[in-house]
Amino acid sequence: MSALSRAYRNLRGFQTALNDLGRMREILRVLGRHGFGAVVQRLNLAEVEAIPPTVEGSPEPAPHLTRGQRIRMVFEELGPTFVKFGQILSTRSDLIADDIIEELEKLQDNVPAMPFSDVRAVIESELGRPVEEIFSVLEELPLASASIAQVHCGLLRSTGEEVVIKVQRVRIKAQIESDLHILHFLARRAAAAIPELELMDPVGIMGEFDRAIRRELDFRTESRSIAQFTANFQGFEGIRAPRVYDDFSSERLLTLERIHGAKVTLAKDTYGLAVTPIAQCMLRGLFKMVFEDGYFHGDLHPGNILIESTGNIVLIDFGLVGRLTPPQREHILDVLVGIARQDYRLVARVFFELGIKQPGVVYDLPAFERDVVELMERHVSNRTLQEVDIGAYFADLVAGAIRHKIRMPPTYTMVFKALMTVEGIGKNIAPDMDFLSEAQPFVERMMVERYSLERLTAQAVETLSGLSRLLKLAPDAGISLVESIRQGTFTVVVEPRGLDKLVAAHRASARLQAAAIGFVGCVLGLGMLYGRPGPAVSGYHVLPVLFAVAALFFGIPLMRVVLARWK
Questions:
Q1: For 268-275, which contacts have Cβ atoms below 8 Å and span 24 or more sequence positions?
Q2: Whether pTM exceeds 0.85
Q3: Annotated catalytic sites, by residue?
Q4: Residue 20 in this model has a pLDDT that exceeds 50
Q5: What's residue 551's pLDDT?
Q6: Are the beta carbons of 167 and 147 closer than 8 angstroms?
């Protein structure tokens, strides 16, 4: 069933690419114009007749531009879907080089504002009422204009409260849908044609991006995320999220409380606030999200952390959130414990366990441990906890795992990025703050919970229950196995990796050989019949015409292959 599903998705993506050749050609031209013509050529798109790799001569990249700058320019030029794709990729420090991430983090939604008439139309369509019945004031000039939506300020007519209204762009969903199909198609081609991308898993990355951007297109998802965060932080002093006005929100519309605040990095200059308590509260909030709730804000850059004049922290933009299972939280806990205790083997073992391994690769755990020990000695040894640069340490750990062909699951990379970002902000505004000291209360509580009598008892009961079920199944399974061997029905299925590609190549070769034999036979037959008497219609001899048509039928595929190879 999965093979049929995969074939259907491949066919659908291919048909979409054919249906939007103009957009496909534009993507290829932009890649070529920014010096990525060689990549386009390696995608082997010449095999697909309808999609010529038009790369405008594949110019040499401008010498004053770095690789990361050119990639950022490609995403910016290709528009909303690609800008979002780049922003998601900027969180994947486990896969993307630092110089590229640095540029992708600069990606901005550089799009013109949507006409106010379209804004009115979306609001009235979603809420079923004229704008004037809902808002006593709705500012025509947008507060912000992004690729998927733009934000306007207003006043609720019913209460006079200040709000911001996030309005989805007209027809953006159809545009993103088309781009997603093309990106899926290109990801599959890249996976097949560029072997060095195997560890990056372009098809898997596209699957993650597809799910992320579809969630972002439904503003009700963000509304639910804010509600979940608000419930989790009920009673936690100093951090909150904006209020959501559900009666004036929908799939394409989100009405929120307007926050008057400054970016966290500007709080001291703007309001004259003491920043150390703010940094400490921010860290405690992040640790609560990661270790207690397993539900965390996935995009904690300074622009999404606002500080009110009272010193309260307000987190905004919940379009990207992460979730952690209890085992995942314990993995992160073990890493922090290993850092605090300078337990090199513990950190190595945890990172090795949580990493995604490639099938067929033999991993050298001792070599991986040696690399982790070297990193620990560089970052942790002979340093106080306050002196440890957690951000740089995590970045090097992830890079080391990649060198050993171990890929971090996306959830972990999102957590590590959040930890690195918040620690970086904290040390920027409060250099004396101790990251691990702030984490200690959460770590201690989780350690006590992990080894509590209640939890150990529950785990023992679960283990015994599973063992009991296994023992009950074992006799029947053993009897069935022996009986199938006795009757000669026992079979072993071997599924060699890569066999499907070899079979496909063999079939293609066999078809070409058959076409060549048919072509030669028809040409010889045509030569033998030429000039000889035979049945004729309207003065044309039937048999030579049939042989000529058949030769043309067999010859066209051969000519295509020859021309493709000459190119």
A1: 268/429, 270/307, 271/307, 271/309, 271/311, 273/307, 273/311, 274/311, 275/429, 275/430
A2: no
A3: 299
A4: yes
A5: 72
A6: no
